[in-house]
Amino acid sequence: MKAKNIIQLLVCCLTSVLVxxxxxxxxxxxxxxxxxxxxxxxxxxxxxxxxxxxxxVNSSHNWYVYECSPWINVSNNYGYGYEFxxxxxxxxxxxxxxxxxxxxxxxxxxxxxxxxxxxxPPTVRFEATMYNTIYSASGDWWGLNISAGYYRSWxxxxxxxxxxxxxxxxxxxxxSGKGDECVYIYVDRNPYTYSRSSTLTVKCGTKSRNITITQxxxxxxVPFTISSILIGNTDYNGNFINNYGSVIYSYQTRYLTPRLYxxxxxxxxxxxxxxxxxxxxxxxxxxxxPTGYTNKKDVTINRNTSYIDMWGWGNNNAGFWGAxxxxxxxxxxxxxxxEKTFTIY
Length: 345
Description:
Blueprint: H1 3-21, H2 27-33, E1 37-40, E2 43-45, E3 52-59, E4 62-68, E5 72-74, E6 78-80, E7 83-89, E8 98-106, E9 113-120, E10 126-130, E11 134-135, E12 140-148, E13 153-158, E14 163-165, E15 174-178, E16 181-187, E17 196-204, E18 207-215, E19 224-234, E20 240-242, E21 255-264, E22 268-277, E23 295-301, E24 307-309, E25 313-314, E26 324-332, E27 335-344
Parallel strand pairs: 2-9, 11-18
Antiparallel strand pairs: 1-3, 3-7, 4-6, 4-8, 5-7, 8-9, 10-12, 12-16, 13-15, 13-17, 14-16, 17-18, 19-20, 19-21, 21-24, 21-25, 22-23, 22-26, 26-27
């Protein structure tokens, strides 16, 4: 065959190859189009008490975690195909919500990537503690210390009526506040010889703490328990200037007179003592005051007795008591059986 013919044949063959190749994509472009990676979901919003999450990766090739926010910790940094991926997050100690990301890439020559966005609110910083949870049988109080960051709201609920939250005469079963606070928890005198327990539940957002308090039993039984106490203001003849439970103003004050609402356990005649503390913390006494007390009264109760009116204490000169917060304690047989905090305006 002549050289000219050979050259013509080679040209024809080369042309045929180029024509047939032009009917399909170049290998690199086809492989790129067949490489993919997806994640589901692409956005994860964590709750205030959530510290972990999960998403699905689906990929045509091996994949790996290319980049990740420093506060996000991914459990598996590489995989293949369809897999569940778990992660945890550090506490968010900032004042506002923060956003982070997890970037995933395919592990081959034709890189594709996807990104999962993660949002996290500030972590709830919340604690409720008591220095002492043991109460004396005569009635007592201790402080419940609550710490709730960023001025978050919280609520205390109680399980028993003989426990009082915030003040000795508060009968509500719940008490609310915000941020850091020391809340005083009062208990009534225990009229029984056995000890008793109660539970306080403090809740802040989705977090809660249960605190169990215990009160010692009495060495003896009291003849009655006090359910509530009201204060009135009378003149020398016992006529009311301000009836029981009314607002009392300093310029009107003469004789402060307490009424004890009671539940009778054992009828009989008993001596009830009391201590009246003034706003400066000193106890009010007179020339005839029993040692260690303001005054006393002998009372007779029966099964139908619902309240006891104590003697009035003060002076017939109007304006005898100054404005401020007072505390009246009531005692029987050496033990405190009730307490009332009240304000004169």
